Amino acid sequence: MTEMLKGIAASDGVAVAKAYLLVQPDLSFETVSVTDTNAEEARLDAALAASQDELSLIREKAVGSLGEEAAAVFDAHLMVLADPEMIGQIKETIRAKEVNAEAALTEVTDMFITIFEGMEDNPYMQERAADIRDVTKRVLANLLGKKLPNPASIDEESIVIANDLTPSDTAQLDKKFVKAFVTNIGGRTSHSAIMARTLEIAAVLGTNNVTEVVKNGDVVAVNGITGQVIVNPSDDQVAEFKAAGEAYAKQKAEWALLKDAETVTADGKHFELAANIGTPKDVQGVNDNGAEAVGLYRTEFLYMDSQDFPTEDEQYQAYKEVLEGMNGKPVVVRTMDIGGDKELPYFDLPKEMNPFLGFRALRISISETGDAMFRTQIRALLRASVHGHLRIMFPMVALLKEFRAAKAVFDEEKAKLQAEGIPVADNIEVGIMIEIPAAAMLADQFAKEVDFFSIGTNDLIQYTMAADRMNEQVSYLYQPYNPSILRLINNVVKAAHAEGKWAGMCGEMAGDQKAVPLLVGIGLDEFSMSATSVLRTRSLMKKLDTKKMEELAQRALTECSTMEEVLELEKEYVDVD
Ligand code: PEP
Ligand code: MG
After folding, report:
1. DSSP string covering 295-359, please?
2. Read out DSSP for 116-162?
3. Which of 17, 73, 301, 354 is deepest in the core (most CB within 10 A)?
4. Ligand lying closest to the C-alpha of residue 460
5. 439 Cβ contact partners less than 8 Å away, ≥ 6 residues apart
6. Pocket test for ligand 1, best of 435, 463, 469 (most atoms within 8 A of CB)
7. Ligand 1 pocket: which of 337, 360, 436 to mutate (most atoms <8 Å of CB)?
């Protein structure tokens, strides 16, 4: 029987093939009292060793299919397996409670998972919880003498159907045979979605019940662009999906031709197309997608991925790696943007009523509390500056006084390093993010003192609309095309140009295909987005005529009163889907 499902479009691509259900074995067990606790500890050790062997093999396979960087997730798993604190506690529980290894393992790992998952504002710790859950399942299966399903054994074209796919499941998928996967749970930013995009396997996640609807061997049609899934499709539907798949493959092949092309409009105007990164590992994707620069390196992940404040040397290594990886192309490094939704477990900041409006980002850096931390980061950046083309920017600037305080630290640390005989590049540009309306309004004054602006629309829109970006109830107020937002952006770009400075954008809006024509018309100089949006944006820009886009922008800024009117007007000028 034909059934239609709708989920979250998580990884582009279209496929029709037979279903392979990735069903987990029953891992239930009884808690039993034991007298020979040594024997239980030995069982645990054997299960840990077996799990280690399995994971090492999976890692090896993942290196082959995904590359060293993507396989790093298994290093995290192997680290969980070797974590002396956790293993010590499991053994302690066996001895103290005289229970079987299965019960002790589950009790201790559940405790860690609960603590980490409770840190709702901390995606890093939540990922650690997912790692522990993944590893525990493997150890438990080994204790129970069961085998986890083996997606690596798939040897015909298939669509993998699962409740959720763990990173180790995903890494075992051979893209020669696995054409897509569909899950009950998960979203666009979940681990499995990110890996699917790396592997370029189509994926639809969060369908709620695909595992109940699909049986092994059913034919499944998946569209990872629209999120549509059809179980046992008709011949017409199969033909429709296949045509959509071919159209997408053709489009991708066309985009790929633009990898080394210049980013120019139809009338020959160049725009800088850059990519956003969170770690040095992301540089590979930046280059693979032909980005011309890194427009935003969110350095707070360096702090969040660490157990303590990263040292000057650790930071220097990370910045050097990015600068060298970009081979002389510009890299905008943003100083740490902690606070708001990004907490550091080891940095004890007071709980606040309104964290997004509170003590965060540059406000911490230029305070007494954050001074040492900020100077360490600036020194590391200055030292790394000789390895490439460095641009530094400060987040969350509201007042000129704040920029001047930060710039003073930059100047002081630069002078100190030079006095110590340590080389520092002399062409480092120092700019600010424009993400607070006060700075957007006063951009003409800021432009006299900064080298560049980068507009952070994720926050600029939240602060302009007074709508928390994490709150679903008010998400309708996230309106990048609203004339109020366009006017602020226009104000910033014009102010920069009046002082001979450049203005870029690193918020999500920069890669939004409906926003690009308007931003081209406004005259934004640099667009920074997720690496996977770069080629599609380059392709779109090639079709735009700047004169026409200028007219569109001008009319949107002066004639339109709502977002809907702006989008209607845009249709008169350009066809974007
Ligand atoms: C922004 O606010 O638009 C931005 C790019 O920074 P973040 O999303 O890290 O706050
Ligand atoms: Mg921001």
Report:
1. EEEETHHHHHTSSSPPPHHHHHHHHHHHHHHTTTSEEEEEPP--BTTB--TTS-PPP-S-GGGSS
2. HHH-TT-HHHHHHHHHHHHHHHHHHHHHTT-----GGG--S-EEEEE
3. 73
4. 1
5. 397, 398, 432, 446
6. 435
7. 337
E strands, 199-329, are 202-205, 219-223, 228-231, 272-277, 293-298
Whole-angstrom CA distances from 334 to 291, 374, 376, 429 are 18, 12, 14, 12
Is the CB of residue 44 less than 8 Å from the CB of residue 86? no
253 close to 260: Cβ distance less than 8 angstroms: no
The two tokens of residue 496 are 């920069």
Nearest CA, atom 7, ligand 1: 458
Q: According to the model, what pLDDT value does residue 76 have?
A: 84
CA distances to 4, 201, 236 from 227, in Å: 11, 13, 19
Distance in Å, CA 396 to ligand 2 centroid: 7
Mutate to test the pocket of ligand 1, among 458, 469, 488, 509 (most ligand atoms within 8 A of CB): 458
Assess contact for 201 and 65: CB atoms under 8 A: no
pLDDT at 389 over 60: yes
* Ligand 1 contact, 226 CB (< 6 A): no
The arrangement of strands across the sheet holding 202-205 comes to: 3-6, 228-231, 219-223, 14-21, 158-162, 178-183, 202-205, 8-11
What pLDDT shows up at residue 546? 98
265 and 544 Cβ atoms separated by less than 8 Å: yes
Distance CA 224, CA 532 (A): 15
Torsion angles phi and psi, residue 205, rounded to 5: -115, 165
Q: What is the mean pLDDT of the chain?
A: 91
Any atom of ligand 1 within 6 Å of the Cβ of 469: no
Q: Which two tokens stand for residue 427?
A: 């062409």
Residue 298 CB–ligand 1 contact under 6 Å = yes
- In ligand 1, the atom with minimum distance to the C-alpha of 507 is 3
Residue 77, pLDDT score? 86
All structural domains of the chain: 3-23+150-234 (3.50.30.10), 37-143 (1.10.274.10), 266-573 (3.20.20.60)
Cα separation, 326 vs 292, in Å, equals 9
pLDDT tens, residue by residue, 528-550: 988 888 999 999 999 999 999 99
576 near 540, Cβ under 8 Å?
yes
Of the candidates 521, 492, 519, 494, which has an alpha carbon nearest to the alpha carbon of residue 508? 519
* 525 Cα–ligand 2 center, Å: 19
Q: Does residue 300's CB lie within 6 angstroms of at least one atom of ligand 1?
A: no
Q: Report whether 499 contacts 451 (CB < 8 A).
A: no
Catalytic site positions: 191, 506
Nearest ligand atom owner, CA of 276: 1
Q: How far is the CA of 301 from the centre of ligand 2 (A)?
A: 14
Q: Is 507 in the pocket of ligand 1 (CB under 6 A)?
A: yes
Name, in order, each residue with C-beta under 8 angstroms of 369's C-beta and a sequence gap of 6 or more: none
pLDDT exceeding 90 applies to what percent of the chain? 68
Q: Name the most confidently modeled range: 157-166, 431-440, 532-541.
A: 431-440
| pLDDT at residue number 382 | 98
Q: Going by CA atoms, what residue is nearest to atom 1 of ligand 1?
A: 456
